[in-house]
Amino acid sequence: MELLTTNNVWMMLCTALVFFMHLGFSFLEIGLTRQKNTINILFKNVFIICVGLLMYYIGGFNLMYPGFEDGDFGFLKFAGFGIAAPENGMTPEYADGGYTWWTDFLFQGMFAATAATIVSGAVAERIKLGAFMIFTVIYVGLVYPIVGSWQWGSGFLSSLSIGEAEGFYDFAGSTLVHSVGGWAALIAVALLGSRIGKFSSDGKPQALPGHNIPVAAAGVLILWLGWFGFNGGSVLSADPAGTSLVLVTTCLAAAAGGIGAFVLSTILYKNYDLTMFLNGILGGLVGITAGADLMSPNEAVIIGLLAGIIIVLGVALIDKLKLDDPVGAIAVHLICGIWGTLAVGIFGSKAGFDQFLVQGLSVLIVGGFCVTTAFIIIFALKKTIGIRVSEKEEIDGLDSHEHGMDAYPDFRLNQH
Amino acid sequence: MELLTTNNVWMMLCTALVFFMHLGFSFLEIGLTRQKNTINILFKNVFIICVGLLMYYIGGFNLMYPGFEDGDFGFLKFAGFGIAAPENGMTPEYADGGYTWWTDFLFQGMFAATAATIVSGAVAERIKLGAFMIFTVIYVGLVYPIVGSWQWGSGFLSSLSIGEAEGFYDFAGSTLVHSVGGWAALIAVALLGSRIGKFSSDGKPQALPGHNIPVAAAGVLILWLGWFGFNGGSVLSADPAGTSLVLVTTCLAAAAGGIGAFVLSTILYKNYDLTMFLNGILGGLVGITAGADLMSPNEAVIIGLLAGIIIVLGVALIDKLKLDDPVGAIAVHLICGIWGTLAVGIFGSKAGFDQFLVQGLSVLIVGGFCVTTAFIIIFALKKTIGIRVSEKEEIDGLDSHEHGMDAYPDFRLNQH
Amino acid sequence: MELLTTNNVWMMLCTALVFFMHLGFSFLEIGLTRQKNTINILFKNVFIICVGLLMYYIGGFNLMYPGFEDGDFGFLKFAGFGIAAPENGMTPEYADGGYTWWTDFLFQGMFAATAATIVSGAVAERIKLGAFMIFTVIYVGLVYPIVGSWQWGSGFLSSLSIGEAEGFYDFAGSTLVHSVGGWAALIAVALLGSRIGKFSSDGKPQALPGHNIPVAAAGVLILWLGWFGFNGGSVLSADPAGTSLVLVTTCLAAAAGGIGAFVLSTILYKNYDLTMFLNGILGGLVGITAGADLMSPNEAVIIGLLAGIIIVLGVALIDKLKLDDPVGAIAVHLICGIWGTLAVGIFGSKAGFDQFLVQGLSVLIVGGFCVTTAFIIIFALKKTIGIRVSEKEEIDGLDSHEHGMDAYPDFRLNQH
Question: Which residues form a coiled coil (chains A, B, C) (predicted)?
Fold first, then answer.
């Protein structure tokens, strides 16, 4: 019981930290976008948190862990409306005493909303709020937990074996969270098209600078803090060796990711690019997430450094493909999510060619499913209610049209 | 001893989270008010934290828990100046091993300042700083701990019985914290009068928009995070079943509160109102606070949803009554505080008509005392040093007159 | 094992909180400086976190704890590249079961970057980024861990005895962290010279107000939160009596520091100075840091109050000496760091004249070393690559020249 109590304290702390990541995402997104769409982005992010939790409560949790605890939970099998704990859900028998059933639900519920948040950044400044809300409800409520069930719900990916490799491995969700969001971001961006003015008539990408870089930087530091919980909590107990190693690999990869992106971008672009530095940190964090418990500190540094380099190249690639991703979400969450997933086959205690193949195959399976479902949802929305705001609305900003409100309505300059 | 250590870690974490709520309150208040009063509001909030802690140290704690631990603490009985721990204060004998005496003091001390913070938002942009500071010292130093002693200090409310109901119930302070602050806010707003320009000559409320909505939104997310500690710590130990249920009910009520306010305000006002969404979240949080440990997740969702609806109606009601509450503190903390307190008689494991009566009676008793004391203090201040700044000062903004400082003195627009 | 798990959870939480202090430092620095240098300051702070962690990983940790755990770690003795845990590093045998080896590394690593962050604020708005980065690498990578090894690595300061006093005492780093940073700040400011316009032709200090005071205030509250981990974690276990007392003394000193600075500055300058209030809080926090575990709450209040008074006088003194420290880092970290260190000889359970002498002597030894090394590094940089940006760059702002970026590039005023 003492150990359950301690484990549960750790898991509740991690739950709180993952919750706090939503402030980080919000800050990052509003900071890197234009002022006229700030209220809209905040609205989307607050909506995602609330509806993400509620969808997970209504059905997501049951959907994601279908066979969990001897059939007490089935596909959309509710105990009345919502959730209900199994009899042993508060005892050390549940989940090897790593946490209580309530904590399990809440920790996983905080993860659920993350996938939609990733999309939110990529589609910012031009998506219709109604369409985005419908997408979020479906993607968080159905797609995310279905993919999650394949691995974390003991589904087929968790037993996908090739040669010596026994099952896909994704510790805290480089694929199951970050690239699930990233694939949808990619599809959404492709179907939405770029913002007015993002590409000149000859196809050259133009800078559409954000309106509050300090807030974006704060967002990244808050996300790094949140990752203490995101990865640290994915140990699913407070096991001292496991949790503390994971925090070390997580932080070293973040630091190395930042330095990698800083150095490469300084060499390539001859200036000290703060945004690239920040995205490098995020890339390192996403990159270590699949194998944070398998890596030595040295390997974490290498994975992070490479993630930082990948970010710089990835952002350039996205631009070259004429995809308009205002916050770099595709490079960070999709490309580094794939990198982190594959890195499990290259570095750390599971490394091996067979594991690499399993990792790659799982990336493709998850990618195929996410691309398909995201396309169906977003395409259906496009053909019905429409997904893109009018040109006038986009130029004026979404805040005034959808919300009748400015982000800084009373802001004045100092008269002195 | 292992369990005491774990419990104490949880309680210290919760203490830190409740402390952090003060940043949430500060952000919410400055975001929803005009730029010219920003320094003043920050000053008030920082003052409240410091003086709240010190007043609780000088006498509040002893006053709130008078008979606690076999008479070692009496009414204003100091061990010298300030506080001193009882002999067993660091052992598992103290408080059933839920925490140490030091943690007890600090956790409760962090709560104490909250009541005054609630008032701060409602009276913003027109109250004299000196008058507010005097009010804070008295209200935090005397009124809050006296009311607290009636229930949490094992006073008469805790044994107020009607029929089958055995005592008032207020888990984490819907009444003892939030409505204690809310009643004073109501009185203060009534005695202060509305801000210049808030009501037109024919009595219609005018929008006086705030100056930094992103910061207000961040404030709400920080407050939600803080509520993990506010409610989670009110279990007074790390008991796994208790704490993790409380976090689930707290978060579900917050999410449902947001959605409730969002849906109703969208229907009523035909636009996506971020401020209402945010206040709905806060309403859900305040609403669940009295019974967070008694409710099932389903009940928490219902309580939250209703709180969200109450917020939308409450804000309109306050406007109709020509009360000028710039941040919606009365609707959030007073009205939803009452709602949450009564909900303990309607939902959850203590529900029943007798309990409902006890809850209602306690709301009236606490309300009567708070209204009376707040009126005496504020009326006395009004008749002596005055509580309202001059018209010129209000129009110019309090920052330049009281602080000789702008909030963004060097802010410039981009010249490109 | 249960106790190790709990201790380790606490220490990981404290590690996360100390990490979060970097957001606090960043916010404080950008808030109190001019908008045109915001990107530059954020870049420096993000760089410090990343490179601080990586330097500590490459060699700092081994350097700071050279003889730790029976010779497994020597001076720059790597297990391959980077760090490697000893065999017992995850067992209760390590560090009396207070934490695992990984947690030890990460907690200490988060401390390491702090010293450079302190310097960052003092030299803001005029230092060359390249020079600052080189300085940071050397100071964090070598100077900080060498000084740390003298005390926390069981070096000669820890056994420096005079009469009855058995060794220097610095609980959480008033000297080893704060004044290590503060001395370097002093030297750097002296070698850099003041910002253009800071002193008029007749030598009078001019106000160069910052651009975002709310962000600076948020920074201070985040730093206070972080200090829960900074001091609370310095117990090096979750020992209930130790940790909870430390949080109480820390918070009371912070509150008293704020009130002390508020009262004195109001008397002296006849206005309610928010910046002074905030710096008083920081002064109280730095002041209690050396003896947070030795003091009673009453003593903590006195130490904090005096620290608040010292801040007001210290800021005036720095101005008088024509040193230009935009954020008050020297008064906060150096002067209050010395005050806190000496206070261990005056108050609390180690008080005594002999201890006072040991404390003072240690301040001088550490100060001598830091002044010397900082001077050598910065003077060498000055004579080679130069440490100060051109006059044009300083007037235009560092953001446009070094980063090609504005902090708020798309910020617009409300048109209504």
Answer: none
Our CA-based measurement puts residue B294 at a distance from the nearest CA of chain A, in whole angstroms, of 14
Tell me the sheet residues that pair with A24: none
B96 φ/ψ sector (left φ>0, alpha ψ -120 to 50, else beta):
left
SS3 A1: coil
**Which run of H or of E encompasses A389?**
none
Taking the C-alpha atoms of residue C118 and residue B119, their distance in angstroms, rounded to an integer, is 36
- Joined together, the tokens standing for residue B171 give 């888990």
Ramachandran angles phi, psi of B394, nearest 5°:
-65, -40
pLDDT attached to residue C189: 97
Chain C hits for A2, CB-CB cut-off 8 Å, are 2
**Segment C303-358, tens digit of pLDDT:** 999 999 999 999 999 999 999 999 999 999 999 999 999 999 999 999 999 999 99
Judged by CB atoms closer than 8 Å, whether chains meet at C54 and A240 is answered as no
Please list every residue in chain C whose beta carbon sits closer than 8 Å to the beta carbon of residue B10. Answer: none
From chain C, the residues in CB contact with B131 under 8 A are none
Cross-chain residue pair A298–C82, CB shorter than 8 Å: yes
Q: Is the CB of B252 less than 8 angstroms away from the CB of A42?
A: no
Chain A residues with CB-CB distance to B272 below 8 A: 43, 129, 402-403
Whether the Cβ atoms of residue A284 and residue A307 lie closer than 8 Å to each other = yes
Asked if C2 and A7 come within 8 Å (Cβ–Cβ), the reply is: no
How far apart, in whole angstroms, are the C-alpha atoms of residue A188 and residue A387? Answer: 9
What is the per-residue pLDDT for B68? Answer: 47
Q: What was the pLDDT predicted at C85?
A: 73
Nearest to A307 by CA among A279, A328, A329: A279
- Nearest C-alpha of chain B: how many angstroms from A109? 10
Q: Which residues contact C136 (CB under 8 A, 6 or more apart)?
A: C44, C47, C48, C51, C52, C116, C119
Domain ranges of chain A: 2-403
Among C217, C240, C409, whose Cβ lies nearest the Cβ of B5? Answer: C240
Residue C39: its chain A contacts at CB < 8 A? 213, 274
Residue B337: name the closest of B321, B314, B320, B319 by CA.
B314
Residue B61 to residue B89: CA distance in whole angstroms: 14
CATH H-level, domain C2-403: superfamily: Ammonium transporter AmtB like domains (1.10.3430.10)
* Cα end-to-end distance, chain B, whole Å: 64
The answer, yes or no, to whether residue B349 has pLDDT greater than 90, is: yes
HSE-CB of C401 using CA atoms within 13 angstroms: 18
Reported as a single tens digit per residue, the pLDDT across C10-38 is: 999 999 999 999 999 999 999 999 999 99
Which of the pair, B74 or A282, is modelled with greater confidence? A282
Q: Name the residue type at position A376.
A: I
| Cross-chain Cβ contact C213/B54 below 8 Å | no
Q: Where are the beta strands (DSSP E) in A246-326?
A: none
ipTM at complex level: 0.96
Distance CA C174, CA C341 (A): 6
Q: How many Å apart are CA A324 and CA A123, to the nearest integer? A: 8
User: Does the distance separating the beta carbons of A259 and C83 come in below 8 Å?
Assistant: no
Task: Judge contact between B127 and B387, C-beta under 8 A.
Answer: yes
d(CA A295, CA B312): 51
State both tokens at C308.
Answer: 């608040």
Task: With cut-offs at 50, 70 and 90, classify the pLDDT of residue C71.
Answer: very low
Between A5 and B2, the higher pLDDT residue: A5
User: What's the whole-model pTM score?
Assistant: 0.97
pLDDT-derived band at B330, boundaries 50, 70, 90: very high
Cβ distance A213 to C57 less than 8 Å, yes or no, reads no
In 3D space, the residue among A234, A287, A293 whose CA is nearest the CA of residue A110 turns out to be A234
